[in-house]
């Protein structure tokens, strides 16, 4: 089972995933967490280039292609083999991030972006995608309180991040059978409880 978590900046995905993994392992599932961009040696090197604040001149097409390069590697090296072994893979972001950030955020042609992500993933689609949704300004404020995580994309304008969030919400509407929206402005424990419930329901189907 392939599960992905998505959301605007500061939605808390990264802090929730280790607790979800522990919870599912206690229930006897074999679970493997991954993150994008990253999760392999090559993909982590590409992540450094993408997120480096020094690379302010990076063109949106360069950015788009680098995310796909990182993605192709983790799909082939990690995600597909784990899924083939019957594991649950939970990814902190996947191709919906490209559609939201590089498509809606940079206002690039969505059909071109969809074709690129299909190429990068070989068509591998998650069975469940959870959107941790929250007000963009609330999320960015959370992130500024944790300066070590501030990257080149966080530094884009608030308008950019609002387009990203709007993009996610359109994607949910277009494909409601794959997406579940969780309100990430709730207390951390309530968000964690909703995530656990959503994933268990999907596993028990
Ligand atoms: P994060 O690890 O803090 O979520 O940082 C990942 C950043 O990369 C975040 O700003 C979203 C961005 N991103 C894209 O713009 N496109 C993508 O395809 C992915 C995976 C991430």
Task: Summarize the structure in words.
- The chain is an alpha/beta fold and 205 residues long.
- The chain contains 8 helices and 5 strands, in the order βαβααβααβααβα.
- The protein has one domain: P-loop containing nucleotide triphosphate hydrolases (Rossmann fold).
- The mean pLDDT is 96.
- The protein binds thymidine-5'-phosphate.
- Thymidine-5'-phosphate binds next to helix 4.
Poorly predicted parts: none
Strand content: 5-15%
* Name of the top-level CATH class: Alpha Beta
Bound molecules: thymidine-5'-phosphate
CATH topology: Rossmann fold
Give the overall pLDDT as a whole number: 96
Number of strands: 5
Query: Which term fits the overall shape?
Result: globular
Give helix % range.
55-70%
CATH architecture grouping: 3-Layer(aba) Sandwich
Radius of gyration: 16 Å
The count of domains is: 1
Q: Which sheet architecture does the biggest sheet show?
A: 5 strands, parallel
- Write out the CATH superfamily name: P-loop containing nucleotide triphosphate hydrolases
Distance between the termini: 12 Å
Helix-strand category? alpha/beta
Q: Strand arrangement, largest sheet? A: 2-3-1-4-5
Element pattern in H and E: EHEHHEHHEHHEH
Count of DSSP-assigned helices: 8
Please name the defining characteristics of this protein.
globular, 5 strands, Rossmann fold, alpha/beta, 205 residues, 8 helices, 5-stranded parallel sheet, binds thymidine-5'-phosphate, single chain
């Amino acid at each position: 089972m392939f599960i992905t978590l998505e959301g605007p900046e500061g939605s808390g995905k990264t802090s929730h995933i280790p607790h979800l993994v522990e919870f599912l392992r206690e229930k006897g599932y074999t679970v493997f967490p991954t993150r994008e961009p990253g999760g392999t040696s090559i993909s982590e090197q590409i992540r450094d280039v993408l997120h480096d604040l020094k690379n302010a001149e990076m063109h949106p097409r360069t950015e788009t292609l680098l995310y796909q390069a990182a993605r192709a590697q983790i799909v082939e090296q990690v995600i597909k083999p784990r899924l083939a072994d019957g594991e649950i893979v939970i990814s902190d972001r996947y191709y919906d991030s490209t559609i939201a950030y590089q498509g809606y955020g940079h206002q690039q042609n969505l059909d071109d972006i969809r074709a690129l992500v299909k190429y990068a993933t070989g068509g591998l689609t998650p069975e469940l995608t959870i959107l941790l949704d929250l007000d963009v300004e609330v999320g960015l404020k959370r992130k500024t309180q944790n300066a070590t995580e501030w990257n080149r994309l966080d530094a884009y304008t608030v308008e950019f991040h609002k387009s990203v969030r709007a993009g996610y919400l359109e994607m949910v509407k277009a494909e409601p059978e794959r997406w579940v929206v969780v309100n990430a402005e709730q207390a951390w424990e309530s968000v964690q409880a909703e995530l656990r419930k959503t994933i268990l329901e999907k596993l028990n189907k």
